[in-house]
Amino acid sequence: MITKSVLGSAGRLAAVVGVLAGAALTAYGQGGVGPDVIVGDIPDWSKYTTTAINGKHAYSIGTTSCNLGTERLTWVADTPVHPVISQNMYRLMNGRFEQIGQAWLKHGFCALQGTVCSTNCSPNPSGCPALGVLCSDPYGSGLNGSQSGLGPKAEVNAATGVFPYPWINNGTGSGQLFKRLVVNSSDLNNAGAQYFVSSMYVHPEDAQAGNDNNNQSYRRITFNSNLDMVLQDTTQRMKPGIQAWRDHGLGANIPDPNVTLTNVDVPGDGRFIVGVKVTNIGGGNWHYEYAIQNLNSDRSGASFNIVLPPNGVATNIGFRDVDYHSGEPYNGTDWVVSQSAGALSWTVAETHAQNVNANALRWDTIYNFWFDANVPPSGGAATIGLFKPGTIGSIGAATIVPSPDGVFRPLNDLCNGPQAVGTGVTNFSNENASTDGPTVGGCATGGDTSIGSDVWFLYTSGATAGETTISLCGSAFNTKMAVYPAGACPTAGSEIACSDNAGT
Fold it and tell me: What is the distance between the alpha carbons of residues 387 and 390, in angstroms, rounded to a whole number?
């Protein structure tokens, strides 16, 4: 275990774990410097449809926000300096994690000063116009389902937290479904399925402070025979919706270690999270199941590209998105699938130049991609093409892909391809990993200063100063770890901390 006072916001970790999978790296962080809003609780729900309307039901969920930062979060009604609040629903069925519904955004107008996340709330002296440090604020499901207070997602830049107020597009339509969390009735209460809801808060001050990657939380739900929600377990704070796939992949509260999640951060923009699970389906074939969450990238996703080896053949290729409604401007055209020698790709039907409202992978949504292939998996890289113009047109995504040579290797085998990890537990393997890290003189095991068969991680604390604890304790076999400053691959003697898993 390493406990280190960190100046700066990011660092590289090199770790080795014997020769097999089964180790776990745990990072414990703190709230960010500046305002840092999270979803502290999803405490209640409302349902607005007794029977389906045009095959759909409408819901809303309550949300309690918490400011875990070091400064008050401005919360002024009728200005563009308040949070907007999302509501989503997901289904996990037959190994596929899908988004099945979304709502328009609740606009905040007043912050109470509660103690849901901490008894050390320092309330804002003037009340409503700001959420105090370590204070909480409840917005019940009735409030979050009030249609007059719901604005469009399309007008919000989630990477900067900036949006116009008053909002411009007030939607089209009316009735019980209008602007609420709308879900197809055929997607509800399916046999063997699990369900989840999530919410995230977007605020310009939170984004400007660099604290906008922990804003979403999720909660498991079930349905009764009337399709009423039943809240289960507790709210999983600061976990994006896609995390539920791994946390419950083998059943309620039974994690699936074969679900791999990796963060993909677009420079100067926001974050995608790529999830994948590969299953051996027999006959020399594997099923590749991907879900990509755009957490807060304004540039949005325009394509997803996988490299196939020369002998690779993909079949059973599929795609799924999530419906927009109530007058959001985006069209719902499915992405175009293309398979050529050495490549498999899904691409939005229209470019940004052709249609700014094309069906790109927008912030706070999850799209699905899947195929079968006659090639076993390995750690590697896929590519996400970006929709809106910018400095780069695409970005690599470390994930599990068809192996170029039939041999499995960890996706974070090399120093120049670290796996981004956040606060919480990350399971990993170094099976077939190479060794490319320097010797670590401060952590010799039996005189051996090397970290052989190493794998690499990149941890960003979200704080300019503070204490971060990184632990490999509890792993099934001996481990060794070194921590380096972020940047170029390290040289010998440049570690800022190391551990041989002996409790020091």
Answer: 9
